[in-house]
Amino acid sequence: MRLLKLVPDNTNIDFVRLRGLAFGLTLILSVLAIGVTFAKGLNFGVDFEGGLMIEERFVTPPDLDRLREVVNAQNVGEASLQQFGDPRTLTIRLPIQEGADEGATNAAVKKVETAISQAFPGATFSRYSTISGKVSGELVRNGVLAVVLAVLGIGLFAIVRFEWQFGVSTIAAIVHDLLMTLGFFALTQFEFDLNIVAAVLTIIGYSINDKIVIDDRIRENMRRYRKMEMREIVNLSVNETLPRTVMTSVTILLALGALLFLGGHVLRGFTAAMILGIVVGTYSSIYVSSSLLITLGLRANPAPEKVTRSGIENAERVAPRGE
Amino acid sequence: MLDFPRWKVVSIWLTIAVLCALAIPSLIPQRITDKWGVNLPRINLGLDLAGGSYLLLEADVNDVAESRLEAMREQVQTEMRRQDPRIEIGDISSRGGRLSFLLRDPSQVDAARERLLSITGGGVGMTGQREWDIQVVDSSRLVLTPTQAGLTQAVDTAMGDATEVVRRRIDELGTREPTIIRQGSNRIVVQVPGLQNPQALKDLLGKTAKLEFKLVDESATPQQLASKQASAGSQVLVYPNNPTGIPLIAVKRSAIITGDQLSDARMEFSQQTNEPQVAITFDSQGGRKFARVTQENVNKPFAIILDNQVISAPNINEPITGGRAQISGSFTTESANALAIALRSGKLPVALKVVEESTVGPDLGEESIRAGILASAVAVALVVAFMLVTYGRFGVYANLAVVINVFVIVGVLALIGGTLTLPGIAGFVLTIGTAVDANVLINERIREERHRGRSVVQAVELGYKEASRTIFEANMTHAISGIIMFLLGSGPVKGFAVVLLIGIATSVFTAVLFTRMLTAGWLRRTKPKTINI
Fold first, then answer.
1. How far apart are alpha carbons B228 and B235 in whole angstroms?
2. Cβ of A266 and B48 within 8 Å?
3. Which of A217, B103, B280, B514 has its CA 20 to 30 A from that of A175?
């Protein structure tokens, strides 16, 4: 049986030469992402903004204007409607109720539900949640804290296990991935809620995973080919790991693709974020973080204490590929 | 690396068998496993999958501080009067979070201080910090300030009691497997699977259920009522159903009897009007006290007060000696029942407010489970097919590892009593994708080493050896973000993190150790000269 090879053997793409172009593109995209995030803002979910969210299922797709009228007539604040894939399922978002006590919120939920079931017979609620401003503030704080801690923790791990340049380039690449994700959410105005923070943390974990694999190979090749130029080592390492990078991205995308199309509407935003993160993370692994190592002045012949010797490795030298 | 002694092979298969067996109960519907009569560990479904209500209750810490201050005020007043010689005090105030009072006779300052020390008690916990600071100001004024340690302790006690009361009240509702957990210093998480309308629950938990019987102060003038300033020893309370039309009434400050002295409370229908009411029974001590006070106050009205609001103010027609009384007002069957439950389960030491709430309908939950299972199955199928066409025999080994990994994750999750949430299912699918990463790393390395001209055994050995280090480092970074999610995330995010962390651990076991064993066995048996990879 002939086996499938997504990436041909012995690729020799000069990724390092493309680095100027890649940095430029990355910079432009990052600036754009920041711009979009500030200009359009993120569409925060109820868990981050406080307020109440009701998801209703209708028998037939409802007329949105009529639904908005019905809800707004209840005098519970400006309603915003959102649709998930299925036109019969809608979420209705309402601001935190005046007085902020539970009585007001309960009354609002009841009023809206009654009004909807009268105006649209057969409509049933599938879920609702209410979150006070105080709790949502805490969730935002915890979310930001989690992302910052994850970035720092992983950067620290990279510095301890590798040279400092690896830590810095890795953090730079993650910041890039984060900006892209934020930009994506600002641009599409998909709801940014607590689950998305989990997705973002997973993206960070995955993206680092990818970079660690390449970094690991760079370190190994630095030991193996002590005379080689740094840019050659980086090129060789990225090329050597390219089949793995592509293979893993494809398997994960296959799995996430199944989730995106079949996993139900509640997880859709979450899955979309993760798919985007994996594409962006793969790009930054190949073009951003490893090339940045050269810019940061990583030299061959690392400090001896960082070298973990292994028998087979040093026993023989094998010519680099392409030679 | 490729040397697997028999004991190692046996223990690997045994571990897998045990963990997969643990997964079985979770994969069979509960109504079938229930019939087996043994309690098998199974995965709990989160509310987003099972449907139900989630409430986050928060206690007002100031509330605890205030009621503690009021309690201390009463304690001080009785203590100063109780012993001989009486210490006359005046100008007692509890404003600004402190209790201060004036001694009529400044020479008694040391004696007063002594008594305060005896009622403010010893130290708190291990450190022995005092609960109150006692200060003498201007040689005749004593000021009691609660210490932070004392306050923390008081909040802690109140929350412990409140959690118990909440548990009793929810149990009375007869719902299925509620979860009630304290969270942080002043919050309680309540999760009730299957509950569709949390209104009744919220009504029940929203009641402090502080029941008091007090005599009505009939001397109060309408002016006093209107200004809410009753004469000394009395207070003005809200009385929405007052037959006089004014929704206010003046009552004596000291209670005849309180809800603490109840032994039972039941909803019943009045024999005269057939309206729902709550029948209460006092304990023996409370019954005697109630009998005595009603005997002394025949033909005077008394007020039944719930949570500082007067429900009714009936006349005492004759002494009530049986230790029983009825609370009637404008109750519905539900509200009378709720009140009875609240009274039976005791009063909440602190008022609780719902700060977060969510309810998921059963249809959405079921749909999410179906979608999740379908997505997982398709994800496994796609990944398995892809690995097979890419790596051939080595792909088969990796695929066996992935499928076993799925069962092992379920088994571990059941073993630790974990909860599967909707994001948890996403974590599951993601783990399927990432678990093969280890095999991709290994197999790519084997390919590379073969290209460099190494023998089959050498290439496989080196592939596992070199990839293992990378796999460890890559999984460590993944674990770091998983641990942070677990520590800082709430609810669903935590569920996601748990599955992710378990998946990282089990995938290293199945994808590295297990496939290595399979590969080694194959190499030993057939000793191939070349491999298709």
1. 8
2. yes
3. A217
Residue B222 has pLDDT above 70, yes or no: yes
**pLDDT at res. A257:** 92
Residue of chain B nearest A213, judged by CA positions: B470
Q: Cβ of A263 and B371 within 8 Å?
A: yes
Q: Is B470 on the interface with A (CB under 8 A)?
A: yes
Are B264 and B159 in a shared domain? yes
Kindly list the residues from chain A whose CB atom is less than 8 angstroms away from the CB atom of residue B496. Answer: 195, 198, 202
CATH code, domain with B28: 1.20.1640.10
pLDDT > 60? residue A145: yes
Q: Centre a 10 Å sphere on the Cβ of residue B455 and count the other Cβ atoms it contains.
A: 12
Q: How far apart are CA A251 and CA A243, in angstroms?
A: 12
Q: At what angle are helices B148-173 and B333-344 packed, to 10 degrees?
A: 130
Average pLDDT in the A269-278 region? 88
The mean predicted confidence, pLDDT, of chain B is 84
Residue B367 touches chain A, beta carbons under 8 Å: yes
Percent of chain B residues topping a pLDDT of 70: 97
Q: How many domains in chain B? A: 3
pLDDT in tens, A219-264: 888 888 888 888 888 888 999 888 888 888 999 999 999 989 988 8
Whether residues B378 and B512 share a domain: the answer is: yes
Domains and CATH numbers, chain A: 19-43+136-304 (1.20.1640.10), 51-131 (3.30.70.3400)
Enclosing domain of residue B449: 6-48+362-526
> What is the average pLDDT across A48-53?
82
Is the Cβ of B432 closer than 8 Å to some Cβ of chain A?
yes
Identify whether residues B262 and B401 lie together within a single domain. Answer: no
Q: Which of B330, B357, B384 is the last residue of a domain?
A: B357
Res B126: pLDDT: 54
Q: How many interface pairs between A and B have CB atoms less than 8 angstroms apart?
A: 236
B125-161 pLDDT tens trace = 555 667 888 888 888 888 888 888 888 888 888 888 8
DSSP assignment string, B411-443: HHHHHTT-EE-HHHHHHHHHHHHHHHHHHHHHH
- Domain match, B379 and B484 both: yes
Does residue B533 lie within any of the structural domains? no
Of B133, B148, B163, the domain-final residue = B148
Would you say residue B435 lies in a domain?
A: yes
Residues 252-291 of B with CB under 8 A from A: none
| Tokens 């100027």 found at | A20
C-beta of residue B329 within 8 angstroms of C-beta of residue B241: yes
Amino acid at A37: T
3 state SS of A125:
strand
Q: Pick the closest to residue B370 from A256, A272, A263 (CA basis).
A: A263
Contact B488 A135 (CB under 8 A): no
Give the best residue of B484, B486, B507 to mutate against chain A (max A CB count within 10 A). B484
CATH number at residue B102: 3.90.1070
Give how far A7 is from chain B: nearest CA, Å: 11
Q: How confident is the model at residue A101 (pLDDT cuts 50, 70, 90)?
A: low
